[in-house]
Amino acid sequence: MGPLVNVGLLIVGGGPAGSFLSREVTLSEVTLVDKKRVNYGPVICGEMMPKAELLRGHIPDELMDLIEYTLHRSIRKEVVVNDIRRMRIMIRVNGEVIDLGTVSFPAYIVDKGLMIRRIIEEVDSRGVKVKFSSTVTGCIRHGGGFKCRLISKSGEEFVETRLLAGADGYPSIVNDLVGNQPLDPMDTAIATSQRATGWVGDQDEAVVIMDPALAPGGYAWIFPRGDGSSNIGLGVRGYDAWVRGINPVNLHLKFLKAFNLTPTQRSILMKTIPVGELGISVEGGGAFLLGDAAGTVVSTNGAGINTAMVSGLILAKALRDGLNYTAEVRRVLGAFLSEVKRLRALADPILEDEGMLVRLTRLMPRETLRWVINEAMLASVNPMLRVMARLLLSLIGSHRG
Ligand SMILES: Cc1cc2nc3c(=O)[nH]c(=O)nc-3n(C[C@H](O)[C@H](O)[C@H](O)COP(=O)(O)OP(=O)(O)OC[C@H]3O[C@@H](n4cnc5c(N)ncnc54)[C@H](O)[C@@H]3O)c2cc1C
Fold first, then answer.
1. Are residues 372 and 276 in the same domain?
2. Does the Cβ of 44 fall within 6 Å of ligand 1?
3. Judgement on whether residues 40 and 70 belong to the same structural domain of the protein
4. How many domains does one find in the chain?
5. Is 171 in the pocket of ligand 1 (CB under 6 A)?
6. What is the pLDDT of residue 400?
7. N or C: which end of the chain has fewer CB atoms below 10 A?
């Protein structure tokens, strides 16, 4: 058996959730472990983070305050690679692109790897023990706490810990320990990620493309990095990939071709993200889930960096002030995510069915379509959005052909 280490809190995963938890937590003897190399790569992400001015007024105030805090703590000049001002919304049906025009959309494109590295350097200097290139292969309950097995270049190691935080994305190695359930495939998405050149649009304009044939249950995106290259990718609902057998890589290749994009990286990177709501259980007997592992991604747009950080902030506060993490995270974040998921579920038939999208484009003025998609991209909880979505669905449902 490898060496044994005793700690107070073991955080599995140093992404936005785990790194932010380690930054905010006030406990002593904290260890942060990540299987990635210390320079935090490769990153599988669009790397877009909306600015506070864009979100405020669209999402609940308490959550907004926490998001703003995470932005203040993580966004520095050096991590911003591009400033986005607008979002161009496109619909693509039967291979034909319908340009719905742009909406104001102030956002950052960040160097996510650098952003996380800076947070980790900060926590490292404050006494958190950081172990990169170390994979946690399993954890069990042990003597009132937990025992986890780690594998790194130096071999096998065991860590005994009083508290355990699963910030390792979906599905988490900590899932079973908190009694969480695997997600319904409709509540997951497989998202592809690559860098590419060839996009000739404005560099301060992000582009989203709704096309049920290219990105069933999701959308495709082009996020310019300001240097002529873009972060590009698409999201395919888990249901389409696993139940219908659609291969996201094939769709990604079609996307490159359709938009004349040339990859600058050889690999197409992919990851599963949750696009539902908070898991059934996010805590149990000293183990916690946060970030993607807990289901904190905003289901209408797939954004999860800020909400992952917010869950880290909430857990740090709960541990510091003796609050119930489950109650806090459900109150501040869970209720909002459930509301957004209800909206996503209303839009699902359109995102999955090209025929429905065709009928929608025939019946609805472009301004209305643009408004609805923009509100969804903002994860707005505007009640008008739900009314509008129902109206659209009943209209396209009753105008077949
Ligand atoms: C293609 C794609 C594009 C996206 N684009 C955006 C975007 O533009 N904007 C946005 O806000 N969100 C975006 N998201 C979502 C966002 O990336 C995630 O929601 C966010 O990173 C979640 O943070 P996290 O810390 O919970 O998990 P992660 O970022 O997944 O971090 C988990 C960490 O745990 C580590 N890990 C996993 N298992 C182990 C293990 N067994 N042992 C040790 N370490 C482990 C991993 O190496 C990783 O560093 C995108 C997601 C994808 C897949």
1. no
2. yes
3. yes
4. 2
5. no
6. 46
7. C
Judge contact between 21 and 176, C-beta under 8 A: no
Ligand 1 contact, 206 CB (< 6 A): no
* Ligand 1 nearest atom to the CA of residue 173, by list position: 41
Ligand 1 contact via 109 beta carbon (within 6 Å): no
> Is residue 347 included in any domain, yes or no?
no
CATH of the domain at 329: 3.50.50.60
Q: 324 with 374, same domain?
A: no
Final residue before a domain boundary, out of 295, 322, 341: 341
Distance 37 CA to ligand 1 centre (A): 14
With a 6 Å cutoff on the Cβ, whether 167 touches ligand 1 is: yes
Q: Distance between CA 400 and CA 289 in Å, rounded?
A: 44
pLDDT < 70: residue spans in the chain:
1, 397-401
User: Domain for residue 76, yes or no?
Assistant: yes
Residue 319 lies in a domain: yes
Range of the structural domain that residue 358 is part of:
352-398
Query: Ligand 1: which of 35, 130, 183, 232 to mutate, judged by most atoms within 8 Å of the beta carbon?
Result: 35
> Which amino acid residue places its CA nearest to atom 10 of ligand 1?
303
Same domain for 356 and 330: no
CA angle, 191 then 80 then 224, to 5°: 50
- CA of 16, closest atom in ligand 1: 25
Task: Report whether residue 110 contacts ligand 1, using a CB cutoff of 6 Å.
Answer: no
What tokens were used for 322? 């003796």
274 and 169 part of one domain = yes
Same domain? For 319 and 375 the reply is no
What is the pLDDT at residue 133?
Answer: 94
Q: Where are the beta strands (DSSP E) in 275-343?
A: 283-284, 287-289
pLDDT at position 213, please? 95
pLDDT of residue 401: 40
Report the distance separating Cα 129 and Cα 148, nearest Å: 16
pTM of the model: 0.96
pLDDT digits (tens, 9 = 90+) for 25-38: 999 999 999 999 87
Q: How far apart are CA 385 and CA 335, in angstroms?
A: 17
Residue carrying the six token digits 């994305």: 169
**Amino acid type, 81:** V
